[in-house]
Amino acid sequence: MKLASVRLLTARLDELVEFYELVTQSTFARPNPVFAELVTSGGTLAIGGDATLGLFPGTGLTVASNTSAIIEFQVDDVDQERARLGDGVRVLQEPVTLPWGNRAMMLADPDGNRVNLYTPYTDEATARFAGR
Predict the structure, then answer these.
(1) What is the pTM assigned to this prediction?
(2) Which of 112, 72, 64, 119 is nearest to 90 (CA)?
(3) Is 83 helix (H, G, I), strand (E, B) or coil?
(4) Which residue, of 14, 36, 65, is where some domain finishes?
């Protein structure tokens, strides 16, 4: 099995695409006016507009209602990313070294979804991510 993507549903499609393009320094494909996706070697981040909710009847999906998941991006240097992003994003947690050896910071996208940028920081963490 292969994890294919994580999809966010939003009433603010253009705002979310702009946020994730700023954070990732990448451009999303827009194959349809109500859908955008960023394909990476590790998986795809997809964003669907609220017009797509009707495609999933009976599932209970709503927009901008997540408080239990974190979208994570591994970066080369989380402190450099913090400096690059400046005041352009909402920072929930400034860079900190976590007990498992990653240095990380937590952001919120325009819908309030949690976004973690992290760098393997200790020798143990770096070894854990080698070859991934």
Answers:
(1) 0.91
(2) 112
(3) helix
(4) 65
